[in-house]
Amino acid sequence: MWSSLAMIAVAAAILKLEAPYLKKRQLTKELRVFYFLLLSGTILSIAMLMNVELPNPMRLVHAVYKPLSDWYTSVLK
Amino acid sequence: MLDKGKISTRQLTIIVALFMVGSSILIIPSYLATYASQDAWISALLSIATGLAVLPLYIALGNKYPGKTLAQFMEDILGMWLGKAVSLFFLAAFPFTMAAFSLRNIGDFMTTQIMPDTPIQAIHIIFLIVVIIGVRLGLEPIMRAAEIIFPWFILLFVCFVIFISPQIKWENILPVLEGGMKPVIGAGVPFTAFPFMETAVFLMIFPHVNRPDRVGRALFWGIVIGGAVLFIITMMSVLVMGPDTTARLIYPSYALAKKISIGNFLERIEGLMAIIWFFTIYFKLTLLYYISVIGFAQSLSLKEYRFLTIPLGIILIVYSILISPNTSFWFEMYTTWALHAITLGLVLPALLLAVAAIRGKGAAKAAATSASEEQTQPDT
């Protein structure tokens, strides 16, 4: 709970630090990308802090290449 | 271009060498010894040769589109939308994931060997803050820092090798080729992928080199220096501790540093020796993170990249924790990650080159028009 609030505070601080410069230069697209990334980063870290089980993309990579790696390790043994 | 920094060929050589050594110095000896036992050094030599053999591919691709980074010429080769999609996928799956792995390597190392009671997140956050400072300063300051650090890295490494050399037992590498060539090649495959195929990410900084004609030479020497360091550390681990102990340890280089003992005076200097990989992992991580951030900005045609560093950094920290549920997962992942790295570091550039050759003039024309468009827009 406290850690999530701290994370939100950190995100707000980052917003305060970065957004004014982008706003001043009227970079709307950049600003949108920034909001999107900051929001997803904050949500992901809060999920991690609350011990939510997040999918690991490496499991997918592992599953895709497993047959091939098994094959070459058995051939080159 | 987003970052107008220019780097010299010498700086490129240095950064390639530091990048090669990166986190591999910590974990490579253990792998090679697991699969090839006392012949680990032969695998290392084979992998270095293979790593150098794929260089012409990257050089050919880089020379075909001078002044453009990988993310930019992918759009020329594959068309705008497919190019953007492929380059975003490449960046997320290769440099960004590698950055997460490198961060995790240093986090795992610190929490298992030096600071066992500190939460891993704390180490990741502190390390990444320094990386973000580097990336925000731009390519040129990173390269200059690498140039300053490099002699110290070499000095520490040479001291390391000299201090440990009295304990060499030559019988540890005998008999040579006991199990034939097959396990030696088998051990070499993952080592070729990690770190040699990872040089593909340097396609993102080719346009920053001030002498484009000498990029090949710089890469060649960088890989030779980095490869030599990895070869020597593998050789030393096996020679001093024997193949079985090397294979059983997670961080053989660190265990090797612990064994240094000169005249009851130079003892337990492993903390000092750990600085070697702090430097190399820092530069590897900074370069990978810089490439991810700048590539992301180029793929989405943003006009600025510095604002991306902190939000992407938060995502990177979550990713680095998520990427392996425990310390040993990475060891299980190793061979599959190697194939992933070969796909993105070798097959993808080869495919790009083939598509570019087939499309030939059409692609060249598209490149010319997009270049002229860039010239007409003064701000980009």
TrEMBL record, chain A:
User: What transmembrane ranges does the database entry give?
Assistant: 34-52
UniProt keyword annotation of Transmembrane helix present: yes
Highest taxon above the source species: Bacteria
> What are the record keywords, sorted?
Membrane, Transmembrane, Transmembrane helix
Protein name listed in UniProt: Uncharacterized protein
Q: Which organism is it from?
A: Paenibacillus profundus
From TrEMBL, chain B:
Topological relation to the membrane, as annotated: Multi-pass membrane protein
Q: Which NCBIfam families match?
A: 2A0309 (TIGR00912)
* Location in or out of the cell: Membrane
Indicate what this protein is called per its UniProt record: Spore germination protein
Q: Which family does it belong to?
A: Belongs to the amino acid-polyamine-organocation (APC) superfamily. Spore germination protein (SGP) (TC 2.A.3.9) family.
InterPro entries, sorted? Spore_GerAB (IPR004761)
The signal peptide stretch is none
Keywords for the protein's UniProt record, in alphabetical order: Germination, Membrane, Transmembrane, Transmembrane helix, Transport
Q: Which PANTHER family match?
A: SPORE GERMINATION PROTEIN A2 (PTHR34975)
Which ranges does the record mark as transmembrane?
Answer: 12-34, 40-61, 81-101, 121-139, 146-164, 184-206, 218-241, 274-296, 308-331, 337-358
Q: What is its main location?
A: membrane
Q: Name one Pfam family in it.
A: Spore_permease
